[in-house]
Design brief:
Length: 101
């Protein structure tokens, strides 16, 4: 089930390469995208971690990854990357608008 905080395919294409690539001995139960959707759901709604919707990964899994990614600077890197992309898009839009005059 999708939520308003869930990533689109295009958003996921931007963010996926920014997440850590760790070798695992067994396949993960939850994808990184599902975990990140859990993080985004909590951040958007401001709910307690334990109140995440039940169709998302368990809150303990989501919170553990969020904590790891935050400590490793991955959350900041995602924010900075998205910020730069938005700034570039705004510049292009402003330049396009100037060129129409």
């Amino acid at each position: 089930m999708g939520y308003s905080s869930s990533l689109t395919d295009k958003e996921w294409e931007i963010i996926e390469p920014l997440l850590p690539k760790k070798k695992r001995t067994k396949p993960p139960t939850w994808s990184k995208r599902e975990i990140l959707d859990g993080v985004l759901s909590q951040l958007k709604n401001g709910c307690n971690w334990c109140d995440l919707p039940k169709d998302l990964p368990p809150y303990s899994t989501v919170f553990w990854h969020y904590k790891q990614w935050r400590e490793e600077g991955i959350i900041d890197n995602i924010r900075d990357t998205l910020y730069e992309q938005v700034r570039e898009q705004v510049k292009k839009t402003e330049m396009d608008n100037l060129n129409h005059y």
